[in-house]
Amino acid sequence: MASLLFASMATSCCDGNANVENSDKNSVIETIMARRSIRKYKPGAVDRETMKKILECGINAPNGQNKQSWEVRVVDSPALMEEIKSIMAAAYPEEDPKRLTGCFRGAPVMTFIARDLSYDFSAYDCGLLAENMMLSATSLGVGSICLGSPVRFINDNPACAPILEKLGFSEGYELALCVGFGYADEAPDAKPRNWEKVKFVD
Ligand SMILES: Cc1cc2nc3c(=O)[nH]c(=O)nc-3n(C[C@H](O)[C@H](O)[C@H](O)COP(=O)(O)O)c2cc1C
Protein backbone atom coordinates (compact mmCIF):
# COMPACT_ATOMS: atom_id res chain seq x y z
CA MET A 1 0.00 0.00 0.00
CA ALA A 2 2.76 2.43 1.04
CA SER A 3 4.78 1.67 -2.08
CA LEU A 4 1.70 2.05 -4.27
CA LEU A 5 1.03 5.41 -2.69
CA PHE A 6 4.63 6.45 -3.20
CA ALA A 7 4.59 5.34 -6.82
CA SER A 8 1.50 7.41 -7.51
CA MET A 9 3.00 10.38 -5.65
CA ALA A 10 6.13 10.14 -7.74
CA THR A 11 4.06 10.83 -10.80
CA SER A 12 1.50 13.24 -9.33
CA CYS A 13 3.63 15.36 -6.95
CA CYS A 14 6.72 15.59 -9.10
CA ASP A 15 5.50 15.56 -12.70
CA GLY A 16 7.70 17.56 -15.00
CA ASN A 17 10.38 18.05 -12.37
CA ALA A 18 12.86 15.42 -13.52
CA ASN A 19 14.75 17.66 -15.88
CA VAL A 20 15.04 20.79 -13.80
CA GLU A 21 18.62 21.55 -14.80
CA ASN A 22 17.80 21.50 -18.50
CA SER A 23 14.53 23.34 -18.20
CA ASP A 24 13.53 26.97 -17.82
CA LYS A 25 10.61 25.71 -15.77
CA ASN A 26 10.88 24.38 -12.27
CA SER A 27 7.63 22.90 -11.05
CA VAL A 28 8.57 23.11 -7.36
CA ILE A 29 9.28 26.83 -7.59
CA GLU A 30 6.15 27.34 -9.69
CA THR A 31 4.08 25.54 -7.06
CA ILE A 32 5.59 27.57 -4.22
CA MET A 33 4.89 30.82 -6.03
CA ALA A 34 1.38 29.73 -7.06
CA ARG A 35 0.16 28.76 -3.55
CA ARG A 36 -2.20 31.28 -2.00
CA SER A 37 -4.43 31.15 1.05
CA ILE A 38 -7.94 30.27 -0.11
CA ARG A 39 -10.91 31.62 1.85
CA LYS A 40 -13.72 30.75 -0.57
CA TYR A 41 -14.34 27.13 -1.56
CA LYS A 42 -16.60 25.24 -3.92
CA PRO A 43 -18.89 22.80 -2.14
CA GLY A 44 -17.67 19.22 -1.83
CA ALA A 45 -14.82 17.52 -0.04
CA VAL A 46 -11.48 16.47 -1.50
CA ASP A 47 -11.57 12.70 -1.97
CA ARG A 48 -9.64 10.59 0.52
CA GLU A 49 -7.14 9.23 -2.03
CA THR A 50 -6.11 12.78 -2.91
CA MET A 51 -6.02 13.71 0.78
CA LYS A 52 -3.80 10.67 1.45
CA LYS A 53 -1.28 11.93 -1.10
CA ILE A 54 -1.33 15.34 0.56
CA LEU A 55 -0.92 13.76 4.01
CA GLU A 56 1.91 11.53 2.74
CA CYS A 57 3.72 14.65 1.54
CA GLY A 58 3.01 16.22 4.95
CA ILE A 59 4.59 13.45 7.00
CA ASN A 60 7.62 13.45 4.70
CA ALA A 61 8.49 16.97 5.86
CA PRO A 62 11.81 17.49 7.58
CA ASN A 63 11.36 17.21 11.33
CA GLY A 64 13.60 17.35 14.35
CA GLN A 65 15.44 14.07 14.98
CA ASN A 66 12.77 12.38 12.90
CA LYS A 67 10.61 12.42 16.04
CA GLN A 68 7.58 13.24 13.85
CA SER A 69 6.33 15.23 16.80
CA TRP A 70 2.90 15.78 15.28
CA GLU A 71 -0.48 14.12 15.18
CA VAL A 72 -2.98 14.89 12.43
CA ARG A 73 -6.73 14.41 12.44
CA VAL A 74 -8.68 14.83 9.22
CA VAL A 75 -12.33 15.86 9.30
CA ASP A 76 -14.11 15.53 5.96
CA SER A 77 -17.58 14.86 7.30
CA PRO A 78 -19.88 17.91 7.07
CA ALA A 79 -21.89 16.51 10.01
CA LEU A 80 -18.82 16.32 12.26
CA MET A 81 -17.70 19.77 11.16
CA GLU A 82 -21.17 21.11 12.08
CA GLU A 83 -20.89 19.39 15.48
CA ILE A 84 -17.50 21.06 16.05
CA LYS A 85 -18.90 24.45 15.05
CA SER A 86 -21.94 24.10 17.31
CA ILE A 87 -19.71 23.24 20.31
CA MET A 88 -17.69 26.39 19.54
CA ALA A 89 -20.84 28.50 19.19
CA ALA A 90 -22.07 27.27 22.59
CA ALA A 91 -18.63 27.92 24.14
CA TYR A 92 -18.57 31.52 22.90
CA PRO A 93 -22.15 32.80 23.31
CA GLU A 94 -20.97 36.42 23.09
CA GLU A 95 -19.44 35.92 19.62
CA ASP A 96 -21.41 36.29 16.41
CA PRO A 97 -21.77 32.57 15.53
CA LYS A 98 -21.21 33.26 11.82
CA ARG A 99 -17.97 35.13 12.50
CA LEU A 100 -16.87 32.49 14.98
CA THR A 101 -17.42 29.46 12.79
CA GLY A 102 -16.21 31.51 9.81
CA CYS A 103 -12.76 31.04 11.32
CA PHE A 104 -12.60 27.75 9.36
CA ARG A 105 -13.02 29.79 6.17
CA GLY A 106 -15.52 27.30 4.77
CA ALA A 107 -12.91 24.71 3.84
CA PRO A 108 -14.68 21.38 3.23
CA VAL A 109 -11.82 19.30 4.67
CA MET A 110 -10.21 20.39 7.91
CA THR A 111 -6.98 18.97 9.27
CA PHE A 112 -6.23 19.50 12.95
CA ILE A 113 -2.52 19.26 13.76
CA ALA A 114 -1.31 18.73 17.31
CA ARG A 115 2.23 19.04 18.62
CA ASP A 116 4.10 16.94 21.16
CA LEU A 117 4.52 19.21 24.16
CA SER A 118 7.55 17.25 25.36
CA TYR A 119 9.62 18.33 22.32
CA ASP A 120 10.74 21.97 22.09
CA PHE A 121 10.88 21.97 18.27
CA SER A 122 7.49 20.37 17.72
CA ALA A 123 5.82 23.62 16.62
CA TYR A 124 8.35 23.87 13.77
CA ASP A 125 7.78 20.23 12.84
CA CYS A 126 4.04 20.92 12.61
CA GLY A 127 4.61 24.06 10.52
CA LEU A 128 6.81 22.19 8.08
CA LEU A 129 4.28 19.36 7.83
CA ALA A 130 1.57 21.94 7.16
CA GLU A 131 3.59 23.65 4.43
CA ASN A 132 4.36 20.34 2.72
CA MET A 133 0.64 19.58 2.73
CA MET A 134 -0.29 22.99 1.34
CA LEU A 135 2.32 22.87 -1.42
CA SER A 136 1.43 19.33 -2.47
CA ALA A 137 -2.24 20.37 -2.44
CA THR A 138 -1.44 23.28 -4.76
CA SER A 139 0.38 20.93 -7.11
CA LEU A 140 -2.72 18.70 -7.20
CA GLY A 141 -5.09 21.60 -7.89
CA VAL A 142 -6.42 21.66 -4.31
CA GLY A 143 -6.75 24.95 -2.44
CA SER A 144 -5.69 25.33 1.17
CA ILE A 145 -5.58 27.68 4.13
CA CYS A 146 -3.41 27.59 7.24
CA LEU A 147 -5.47 28.63 10.26
CA GLY A 148 -4.43 29.79 13.71
CA SER A 149 -7.68 31.32 14.95
CA PRO A 150 -9.61 28.03 15.44
CA VAL A 151 -6.68 26.81 17.52
CA ARG A 152 -7.03 29.80 19.85
CA PHE A 153 -10.81 29.38 20.12
CA ILE A 154 -10.55 25.66 20.86
CA ASN A 155 -7.55 25.69 23.21
CA ASP A 156 -8.55 28.78 25.18
CA ASN A 157 -11.97 27.67 26.34
CA PRO A 158 -12.58 24.51 28.43
CA ALA A 159 -16.09 24.35 26.95
CA CYS A 160 -14.40 23.30 23.69
CA ALA A 161 -12.89 20.21 25.35
CA PRO A 162 -15.45 17.88 23.69
CA ILE A 163 -13.93 18.88 20.33
CA LEU A 164 -10.48 17.78 21.47
CA GLU A 165 -11.95 14.57 22.94
CA LYS A 166 -13.57 13.83 19.59
CA LEU A 167 -10.29 14.47 17.73
CA GLY A 168 -8.60 12.07 20.14
CA PHE A 169 -5.03 13.33 20.23
CA SER A 170 -2.61 11.38 22.42
CA GLU A 171 -1.83 12.46 25.96
CA GLY A 172 0.84 15.18 25.92
CA TYR A 173 -0.21 16.60 22.55
CA GLU A 174 -1.74 20.05 22.07
CA LEU A 175 -3.64 21.41 19.07
CA ALA A 176 -1.16 23.68 17.24
CA LEU A 177 -2.52 24.44 13.78
CA CYS A 178 -5.44 23.79 11.46
CA VAL A 179 -5.11 23.51 7.70
CA GLY A 180 -8.22 23.53 5.54
CA PHE A 181 -8.47 22.02 2.06
CA GLY A 182 -10.94 22.17 -0.79
CA TYR A 183 -11.43 23.30 -4.34
CA ALA A 184 -10.90 27.04 -4.66
CA ASP A 185 -13.74 29.36 -5.63
CA GLU A 186 -11.45 32.38 -5.77
CA ALA A 187 -7.99 33.18 -7.15
CA PRO A 188 -6.46 35.76 -4.82
CA ASP A 189 -3.42 37.75 -5.84
CA ALA A 190 -0.14 37.22 -4.06
CA LYS A 191 0.31 39.46 -1.04
CA PRO A 192 3.42 41.62 -1.08
CA ARG A 193 6.57 40.28 0.59
CA ASN A 194 9.20 42.43 2.24
CA TRP A 195 12.72 41.82 0.96
CA GLU A 196 14.01 44.28 3.60
CA LYS A 197 13.73 41.45 6.12
CA VAL A 198 16.28 39.38 4.21
CA LYS A 199 19.97 40.25 4.03
CA PHE A 200 23.09 38.58 2.82
CA VAL A 201 25.78 38.97 5.46
CA ASP A 202 29.36 39.40 4.19
C1 LIG B 1 0.51 30.33 11.49
C2 LIG B 1 -0.52 30.89 10.53
C3 LIG B 1 -1.78 31.20 11.01
C4 LIG B 1 -2.75 31.70 10.14
N1 LIG B 1 -4.01 31.92 10.59
C5 LIG B 1 -4.96 32.37 9.77
C6 LIG B 1 -6.30 32.52 10.23
O1 LIG B 1 -6.61 32.25 11.37
N2 LIG B 1 -7.22 32.95 9.34
C7 LIG B 1 -6.90 33.23 8.03
O2 LIG B 1 -7.80 33.60 7.27
N3 LIG B 1 -5.64 33.08 7.56
C8 LIG B 1 -4.66 32.65 8.39
N4 LIG B 1 -3.39 32.45 7.93
C9 LIG B 1 -3.06 32.72 6.51
C10 LIG B 1 -2.27 34.02 6.36
O3 LIG B 1 -3.09 35.11 6.58
C11 LIG B 1 -1.61 34.05 4.96
O4 LIG B 1 -0.74 32.97 4.80
C12 LIG B 1 -0.85 35.36 4.71
O5 LIG B 1 -1.71 36.46 4.73
C13 LIG B 1 -0.11 35.33 3.36
O6 LIG B 1 -1.01 35.09 2.29
P1 LIG B 1 -0.80 33.84 1.31
O7 LIG B 1 -0.89 32.59 2.16
O8 LIG B 1 -1.92 33.92 0.32
O9 LIG B 1 0.54 33.96 0.67
C14 LIG B 1 -2.42 31.93 8.78
C15 LIG B 1 -1.14 31.59 8.31
C16 LIG B 1 -0.21 31.07 9.16
C17 LIG B 1 1.13 30.64 8.62
Helix content: 40-55%
CATH architecture of the domain at 45-185: 3-Layer(aba) Sandwich
Q: Give the strand tally.
A: 4
> What is the CATH superfamily classification of the domain at 45-185?
NADH Oxidase
What's the gyration radius in Å? Answer: 18 Å
Query: Mean of residue pLDDT?
Result: 91
Biggest sheet, strands in spatial order? 1-2-4-3
What is the rounded distance between the termini?
49 Å
Order of helices and strands, N to C? Answer: HHHEHHEHEHHE
Shape by Cα distribution: globular
Short description:
Helix content is 41%, strand content 14%. It is an alpha+beta fold.
Topology readout:
Layout: H1 2-12, H2 27-34, H3 48-59, E1 70-75, H4 78-91, H5 97-101, E2 109-116, H6 122-139, E3 143-147, H7 149-156, H8 161-167, E4 173-182
Antiparallel strand pairs: 1-2, 2-4, 3-4
Helix pairs in contact: 1-3, 2-6, 3-6
The protein binds flavin mononucleotide.
